[in-house]
Amino acid sequence: MNQPRIGLFFWLLVFLIIGSYLWYINLYAVNIPITDDYDLVRVKYTLLTQEFSWWQKIKLLLEPENDHRILIPRSIALTDYAVEGFINYRTLIGVVNLSLLGILGFWFLSFLKRGLNAWFFLPVLLWYLTPFVFDVTLWGINGMQHTTLNLLVFGTLALLSYSTNPWAFGAALVVGFAATFTNGNGFLVFPAGLAVLLLTQDWKKSALWTIGMIASLLAYFLNYQVGQATKVAFSGEFVGNLLVSFAALSGGWMATFKGNSPQWLLWSSFLVGMLSLLGITLWLGYQLFMAPQRPRSGRPYLWVGVFVFSILTIGIIAVSRGGRDVYSVFTSRYSLYPLHLLTLTYLALLSWKSISPSWVFRVAVLFGGVFVTMSLYQYQRDMDERRRSLIADHYNWRQHRKLITHFRSELADFFTLPAYQKGIYRFENFPLGVATEQLLSLPADTTQRDALKLTLTTTQKNIDFFGHPQTVAQFSLINADVLQPEFGEGVGVFLVLKSAKNKTYLLPTLPIQGGKRAFFTSARVYKPGFELTVYNENFVPDTYRIGLLSPKGTGYDLRYLQQSIQIDSLSTKLVN
After folding, report:
1. pTM of the full predicted structure?
2. Strands (E), 121-227
3. Is 328:319 a contact under the CB 8 Å cutoff?
4. Which of 137, 327, 466, 499 has the fewest beta carbons under 10 Å from its own?
5. Rounded Cα–Cα distance for residues 375 and 393 (Å)
6. Is 494 helix (H, G, I), strand (E, B) or coil?
């Protein structure tokens, strides 16, 4: 492994890893919007139903959404609509995952430019292509705001790092502008790019890049509307939380190994993050100013740009989120940035002359395998919960125009229902199959009275709903016996509520994670049982037979229980 060489076996392994990952993503990608995804529907519906000049259309596309200008994600969605005739969220998820593969392509290019053995790149695939990044790979708009953004950032920095051609510089400016209008942190590609240009001592391009940076910043904040995330109240506690969350997110990949103690996760990530930041800084400083200089293509300019962009982004997340709640940074939507720092740490260790690169590689492969395994254990439940909830949304929307897993889903009906009727987005091809949908349409079998122990809990809370005090009710159903299907055994178990008039609701059962011992000894993520919580107001008041829809062979089986459930706006009761 001392000489960089790419052979057939290497590519077979690469395609095996990538192919397995894409197969996994395909299983969980559903053509159903998730929360902020509906912004893409709103924009298209507005364009279809109102007359706009070209300037007004641009202003609409540039409207901030939750503090971010997302021109590029909206443009991608509109392009998809123009091609397919509707916004296909599976297509958007495909765009997002191609973006992730593009990021890995730039990492691979940097390994080769540095003269590293191509085999050393394999562990990087293992920690990027895991469920750890599910929020930025299986959520259309969120994935475009982070994963596609990072592809644009890597592309910009690669153009600045590896080429002196003026056309490449111009292309970097264009891609940098695109990154700025993909997500709020996209603008940070400009200070990251400036760091690269200053290190290359290209003063003319540095000056031009600075002008572009100022222009981009002014364009971004033109008619900007301040949102919740930018409203920060500084205090001593806020500053302390900010510093802790900044270091903790830098080592945020430790969330894959989290236990039952949030404190352990916080401080282990903090320690790992601090060591990573210190080590990467010293290593890059040595490579830039003390080590024998290489040709430009072999210098670590791209890595410097990625490092600057990552720590600036982590800093913004710490200000907007971590300062108020240190644990809020441990979310999959921010997962790419600690993985960038993990990769840079790995590169630093490969460059450490006191340690054999082959030994570092072997340890990294072992670590990558453990990372994949623990990622499956930690995040499989999140992925299954989301897929089940979306499938329930799919069915209930088509039947009742309600999203049962949401609170006040009718809030957005001023555009979601008309947009659905116009075909801007579609709930076609029931994910559980035509036969299962037909099974759900049949009246309840009154001869079936299966026994299942269900525990019902109810809660009420007073809310201020846009200045109108209201009381809302929720109910939860809990069970400790139903076996939950593991990966590859079916999509999941669902509860079916069916009235005497054949009004049917489909509810997702949320699995309960088992312990690590069961996972490693019997490959089971879940222990028996489930829980679910829904709002009463999403149901038509009535008495409903309870059924259990579970995988059977290649399809599903529906068995009705001896219990029924009475639901009205503020109360719920189980009836035997």
Report:
1. 0.92
2. none
3. no
4. 466
5. 26
6. strand
For residues 260, 262, 268, 273, the Cα torsion angle rounded to the nearest 10 degrees is 130
- Tell me if 36 sits within 8 A of 66, measured CB to CB: yes
Return the DSSP state at 506: E
Block mean pLDDT (10 aa), the chain, length 576: 66 95 93 86 88 86 82 93 93 96 97 92 96 92 94 97 94 96 93 96 94 91 63 69 89 87 89 95 92 82 96 92 80 93 96 89 96 93 92 91 70 68 87 93 89 92 82 93 86 93 94 87 89 92 94 90 92 91
Q: Distance of alpha carbon 516 from its chain centroid, rounded?
A: 24
Residue 234 phi/psi, 5° resolution?
Answer: -75, 140
- Which has the closest alpha carbon to 127: 144, 103, 149? 103
68 in Cβ contact with 320 (< 8 Å): no
The Cα 349–Cα 355 span in angstroms is 8
Cα-Cα-Cα-Cα dihedral sign, residues 21, 27, 28, 30: positive
The answer to whether the beta carbons of residues 335 and 136 sit under 8 Å apart is: yes
Query: Alpha-carbon distance 248 to 315, whole Å?
Result: 11
Which of 168, 150, 152, 149 lies closest to 296 in space, CA to CA?
168
Torsion sign, CA atoms 31, 35, 40, 44: positive
What does the CA dihedral 485, 486, 490, 494 come to, rounded to 10 degrees? 40
Site of tokens 């529907």: 41
Distance in angstroms between the alpha carbons of the first and the last residue of the chain: 69
What count of residues does the chain have?
A: 576
Going from the C-alpha of 499 to that of each of 154, 284, 537, 564, the distances in angstroms are: 55, 66, 16, 9
Selection from 261, 257, 262 nearest residue 375 by Cα: 257
* Residues pairing with 530 in the sheet: 479, 511
